[in-house]
Amino acid sequence: MGTHTVLAKDKKCGACQFWQGDRKIRFVNHKPYSINVDSSQIFCDAASKKTYGVGTCPKWKKWVDI
């Protein structure tokens, strides 16, 4: 299974608290910089649809771990 990369500061699904797919944080200078997210579509409860980690949504909320 592949991955996509999103920046931790971007309002993308992979950096959202509602994202249910796998993700791995990359740190630069001890701060979250980017996130590798699962490249497959994942169902989002907030948007009530399947979406990719690089997608956007008006219901985006910052993931608390970043």
Strand content: 35-45%
Oligomer: single chain
* Helix-strand pattern: EEEEE
Q: What characterizes the major β-sheet?
A: 3 strands, antiparallel
| Cross-sheet strand order for the largest sheet | 1-3-2
Report the count of strand segments: 5
Roughly how much helix do the residues carry, as a percent range? under 10%
Using the alpha-carbon principal axes, give the shape.
globular
Averaged pLDDT:
92
As a whole number of angstroms, the C-alpha radius of gyration is: 11 Å
The computed structural class is mainly beta
Gap from first CA to last CA: 24 Å
> Could you name the ranges where pLDDT drops below 50 across 5 or more consecutive residues?
none
Number of domains: 1
Number of helices: 0
Description:
By secondary structure, the chain is an all-beta fold. The protein has one domain. The protein contains no helices and five strands. It has strands at 3-7, 23-28, 31-38, 42-44, 49-51. The strands form two sheets. Strands 1-3-2 form a three-stranded antiparallel β-sheet, with no helix packed on it. The protein has a two-stranded antiparallel sheet with strand order 4-5.
Task: Give descriptors for this structure.
66 residues, 38% strand, two-stranded antiparallel sheet, 3-stranded antiparallel sheet, mainly beta, 5 strands
